[in-house]
Amino acid sequence: MTSSRVKRYWVCWLLCIWSSYSVANEPSLFVAASAEPQVRVELFEFQSLDKQKQAIELAKSLRCPQCQNQNLVESNSPIAKDLRLIVYQMIDQGSSEKQVIDFMTQRYGEFVRYKPEFNPSNALLWLLPLALLLVFVVLSARRIRRN
Protein backbone atom coordinates (compact mmCIF):
# COMPACT_ATOMS: atom_id res chain seq x y z
CA MET A 1 0.00 0.00 0.00
CA THR A 2 1.15 3.49 -0.72
CA SER A 3 1.35 6.07 2.01
CA SER A 4 -1.59 8.07 0.64
CA ARG A 5 -3.78 4.95 0.73
CA VAL A 6 -2.73 4.23 4.30
CA LYS A 7 -3.58 7.80 5.31
CA ARG A 8 -7.01 7.54 3.68
CA TYR A 9 -7.57 4.21 5.40
CA TRP A 10 -6.79 5.64 8.85
CA VAL A 11 -8.79 8.78 8.21
CA CYS A 12 -11.82 6.68 7.25
CA TRP A 13 -11.45 4.56 10.38
CA LEU A 14 -11.13 7.63 12.59
CA LEU A 15 -14.22 9.20 11.00
CA CYS A 16 -16.23 6.01 11.50
CA ILE A 17 -15.20 5.74 15.14
CA TRP A 18 -15.87 9.41 15.80
CA SER A 19 -19.30 9.34 14.11
CA SER A 20 -20.40 6.18 15.95
CA TYR A 21 -19.23 7.69 19.24
CA SER A 22 -21.08 10.97 18.64
CA VAL A 23 -24.29 9.18 17.58
CA ALA A 24 -24.19 6.87 20.61
CA ASN A 25 -23.74 9.80 22.99
CA GLU A 26 -26.49 11.96 21.46
CA PRO A 27 -29.32 11.89 24.03
CA SER A 28 -32.02 13.31 21.74
CA LEU A 29 -31.81 10.30 19.42
CA PHE A 30 -32.75 7.84 22.12
CA VAL A 31 -35.61 9.63 23.86
CA ALA A 32 -38.11 6.95 22.86
CA ALA A 33 -35.98 4.24 24.47
CA SER A 34 -36.07 5.81 27.93
CA ALA A 35 -36.99 3.55 30.85
CA GLU A 36 -39.98 5.65 31.91
CA PRO A 37 -42.41 6.53 29.12
CA GLN A 38 -44.04 9.92 29.42
CA VAL A 39 -47.81 9.64 29.39
CA ARG A 40 -50.02 12.70 29.50
CA VAL A 41 -53.49 12.19 30.86
CA GLU A 42 -56.27 14.73 30.59
CA LEU A 43 -58.88 14.63 33.31
CA PHE A 44 -62.17 16.47 32.93
CA GLU A 45 -64.89 16.42 35.53
CA PHE A 46 -68.49 16.49 34.35
CA GLN A 47 -71.72 17.19 36.14
CA SER A 48 -73.20 13.91 34.89
CA LEU A 49 -72.14 10.75 33.11
CA ASP A 50 -74.52 11.52 30.22
CA LYS A 51 -72.78 14.84 29.53
CA GLN A 52 -69.42 13.08 29.58
CA LYS A 53 -70.56 10.52 26.98
CA GLN A 54 -72.12 13.28 24.87
CA ALA A 55 -68.90 15.33 24.94
CA ILE A 56 -66.74 12.35 24.02
CA GLU A 57 -68.99 11.38 21.10
CA LEU A 58 -69.07 14.97 19.90
CA ALA A 59 -65.27 15.26 20.10
CA LYS A 60 -65.02 12.05 18.07
CA SER A 61 -67.20 13.58 15.35
CA LEU A 62 -65.00 16.68 14.96
CA ARG A 63 -61.76 16.66 12.97
CA CYS A 64 -58.47 18.04 14.25
CA PRO A 65 -57.55 21.10 12.14
CA GLN A 66 -53.84 20.29 12.36
CA CYS A 67 -53.80 16.49 11.94
CA GLN A 68 -56.56 16.38 9.30
CA ASN A 69 -57.14 12.62 9.49
CA GLN A 70 -57.77 12.26 13.20
CA ASN A 71 -60.65 13.30 15.36
CA LEU A 72 -60.20 15.44 18.46
CA VAL A 73 -60.07 12.42 20.77
CA GLU A 74 -57.38 10.56 18.80
CA SER A 75 -55.13 13.55 18.12
CA ASN A 76 -52.36 14.60 20.48
CA SER A 77 -51.65 17.94 18.84
CA PRO A 78 -51.82 21.05 21.04
CA ILE A 79 -54.76 22.51 19.13
CA ALA A 80 -56.73 19.26 19.51
CA LYS A 81 -56.19 19.40 23.26
CA ASP A 82 -57.47 22.97 23.33
CA LEU A 83 -60.49 22.10 21.21
CA ARG A 84 -61.28 19.06 23.38
CA LEU A 85 -61.26 21.33 26.40
CA ILE A 86 -63.62 23.78 24.66
CA VAL A 87 -65.98 20.96 23.64
CA TYR A 88 -65.99 19.48 27.13
CA GLN A 89 -66.54 22.86 28.79
CA MET A 90 -69.37 23.87 26.44
CA ILE A 91 -71.18 20.55 26.89
CA ASP A 92 -70.67 20.63 30.65
CA GLN A 93 -72.10 24.16 30.77
CA GLY A 94 -75.25 23.00 28.99
CA SER A 95 -74.62 23.93 25.36
CA SER A 96 -76.26 21.72 22.77
CA GLU A 97 -74.30 19.70 20.23
CA LYS A 98 -75.54 22.01 17.48
CA GLN A 99 -74.20 25.06 19.34
CA VAL A 100 -70.78 23.42 19.78
CA ILE A 101 -70.64 22.34 16.13
CA ASP A 102 -71.72 25.82 14.97
CA PHE A 103 -69.02 27.40 17.14
CA MET A 104 -66.31 25.09 15.76
CA THR A 105 -67.53 25.52 12.18
CA GLN A 106 -67.60 29.30 12.52
CA ARG A 107 -64.09 29.32 13.93
CA TYR A 108 -62.40 26.64 11.76
CA GLY A 109 -64.70 26.21 8.77
CA GLU A 110 -66.55 23.19 7.40
CA PHE A 111 -63.30 21.23 7.40
CA VAL A 112 -63.71 20.51 11.13
CA ARG A 113 -66.80 18.42 10.46
CA TYR A 114 -66.52 14.87 9.18
CA LYS A 115 -70.05 15.13 7.80
CA PRO A 116 -70.52 18.65 6.41
CA GLU A 117 -74.00 19.99 5.77
CA PHE A 118 -75.40 20.18 2.27
CA ASN A 119 -75.30 23.78 1.07
CA PRO A 120 -74.69 25.57 -2.26
CA SER A 121 -70.96 25.98 -1.61
CA ASN A 122 -70.36 22.24 -1.32
CA ALA A 123 -73.18 20.92 -3.52
CA LEU A 124 -70.70 19.80 -6.18
CA LEU A 125 -68.93 17.59 -3.65
CA TRP A 126 -72.22 15.91 -2.72
CA LEU A 127 -73.67 15.60 -6.22
CA LEU A 128 -70.60 14.83 -8.35
CA PRO A 129 -70.26 11.18 -7.22
CA LEU A 130 -73.95 10.56 -7.95
CA ALA A 131 -73.65 12.24 -11.36
CA LEU A 132 -70.58 10.17 -12.24
CA LEU A 133 -72.34 6.97 -11.18
CA LEU A 134 -75.35 7.87 -13.30
CA VAL A 135 -73.13 8.61 -16.34
CA PHE A 136 -71.32 5.29 -15.84
CA VAL A 137 -74.60 3.34 -15.65
CA VAL A 138 -76.01 5.06 -18.77
CA LEU A 139 -72.83 4.53 -20.81
CA SER A 140 -72.57 0.91 -19.67
CA ALA A 141 -76.21 0.24 -20.62
CA ARG A 142 -75.65 1.74 -24.09
CA ARG A 143 -72.53 -0.34 -24.64
CA ILE A 144 -74.29 -3.54 -23.56
CA ARG A 145 -77.23 -2.84 -25.92
CA ARG A 146 -74.87 -2.30 -28.88
CA ASN A 147 -73.18 -5.65 -28.34
Give a short summary of the structure.
Helix content is 58%, strand content 0%. With 147 residues, it is an all-alpha fold.
Question: How would you characterize the overall build of this protein?
Answer:
- The chain has 147 residues and is an all-alpha fold.
- The chain is built from 5 helices and no strands.
CA-based shape:
flat
Overall pLDDT score = 78
Order of helices and strands: HHHHH
Number of beta-strand segments: 0
User: Strand fraction band?
Assistant: under 5%
Poorly predicted segments: 23-41
What Rg is obtained from the alpha carbons, in whole angstroms? Answer: 28 Å
Terminal-residue CA separation: 79 Å
**How would a crystallographer describe the biggest sheet?**
none
Number of helices in the DSSP assignment = 5
| Proportion of helical residues | 55-70%
Structural class: mainly alpha
Would you spell out the secondary-structure blueprint of this structure?
Layout: H1 3-24, H2 49-60, H3 78-92, H4 97-108, H5 123-146
Helix pairs in contact: 2-3
Throw out a few tags for this protein.
single chain; about 150 residues; mainly alpha; about 60% helix; about 0% strand; flat
